[in-house]
Design brief:
Blueprint (H helix, E strand, L loop, with lengths): L4 E6 L3 H17 L4 E6 L3 H4 L5 H4 L9 H8 L5 E5 L11 E6 L7 E5 L14 E3 L3 H10 L4 E3 L5 H9 L5 E5 H6 L8 E3 L13 E6 L3 H7 L5 H16 L8 E8 L2 E9 L6 E9 L3 H25 L1
Parallel strand pairs: 1-2, 1-3, 6-7, 6-8
Antiparallel strand pairs: 3-10, 4-10, 5-8, 5-9, 11-12, 12-13
Helix pairs in contact: 9-10
Length: about 300
């Protein structure tokens, strides 16, 4: 690539394009001399729409990232924009997180049919749409009576399915809704005691080649260090638990002055058992904090839940 040009790779969904155009605008603001192009790449996750993500199991690794990373290895693109929660904890050889941008709202959003005013007002046996085991297990833990139904597709598709009466409510990440201008559709933001977030939720990750000094230098102004430290702790927690296991795992790290406060959980998919923990550490101990909380939960029974998944 020439020194005055950068090519960004992205998926073609509305949300992916919004995120990529935001990164493009930020790069142009900080580096007006650089010409920036966007290249849309279709991933396996974009093609498989008839299978729920948990059912894909190990095949789901890198579902939304592999083709973008292949394009980076081939030097067809200079960087790739992802939702951080889609990125596996082990980065492919030669690729790095060149920047993690400032986080949006990390909470999950409860979006209900007009007659339902709040999560607590959900009627008995209500139909709730989600394809996330993390969300399903936490829903079942607080409301075992609910019918949890799978829902796939982009944000527009999921909202349409709700409006057509297929569900009484759906749960989506509030970050995506807010970025796409759908904040008004949110019935209620779910707090961490009901619905702890996915690792990295609400954060944009910009993946780059480790040896590309020019691009990594351009990305520095887009990196938000408090978000990066929080996400390092969350991803370290996930990695400490085994990372790729198809078991409900959630984590949220908050930066509080000079401390990191990390909360995490591991659950059974049916919500019958939820193991939660919380720890604090200094900012420079982000990775260690994640490891320690993972060890704590493993000692308190999370290991059995993870082992059950592998049987």
């Amino acid at each position: 690539m020439t020194n005055n040009k950068v090519i960004i790779g992205t998926r073609g969904s509305m949300l992916a394009l919004w995120q990529t155009n935001w990164v493009k605008a930020e790069l142009e603001k900080h580096h007006p001399q650089i010409a920036i192009e966007i290249k849309i790449i279709t991933t396996k996750g974009d093609r498989i729409l008839d299978v729920s993500l948990p059912k894909l199991g190990e095949q789901g690794k890198g579902l939304f990232t592999k083709e973008l990373e292949d394009a980076m290895y081939a030097r067809e693109i200079d960087l790739a924009v992802h939702s951080l929660k889609d990125l596996p904890t082990d980065m492919p050889e030669g690729l790095i997180l060149g920047a993690i941008c400032e986080r949006e709202d990390v909470r999950d959003a409860f979006i209900a049919a007009p007659q339902i005013q709040s999560f607590k007002a959900l009627p008995k046996s209500a139909r709730v749409g989600t394809s996330s085991l993390r969300r399903e297990s936490q829903l079942r833990a607080v409301r075992p009576d609910l019918q949890i139904l799978p829902v796939r597709g982009n944000v527009d598709t999921r909202l349409r399915k709700l409006d057509e009466g297929n569900y009484d409510a759906i749960i989506l990440a509030s970050a995506g809704l807010r970025r796409l201008g759908y904040a008004a559709r949110i019935t209620e933001y779910l707090e961490a005691d009901i619905m702890l977030s996915a690792v990295g939720q609400g954060a944009l990750a910009i993946e780059s080649r480790e040896d590309d000094e020019r691009v990594n230098r351009l990305l520095k102004p887009l990196n938000h260090q408090p978000t990066r430290l929080a996400c390092i702790a969350e991803r370290s927690f996930l990695k400490g638990l085994g990372g790729g296991c198809i078991v409900p795992i959630a984590a949220l790290c908050r930066v509080e002055e000079d401390k990191l406060n990390l909360e995490g959980l591991v659950a059974k998919p049916d919500g019958s058992q939820v193991i939660r923990g919380q720890m604090t550490a200094l900012l420079e101990e982000a990775e260690l904090l994640g490891q320690k909380l993972a060890e704590d939960l493993l000692q308190r029974g999370a290991g059995e839940l993870l082992a059950d998944d592998k049987v």
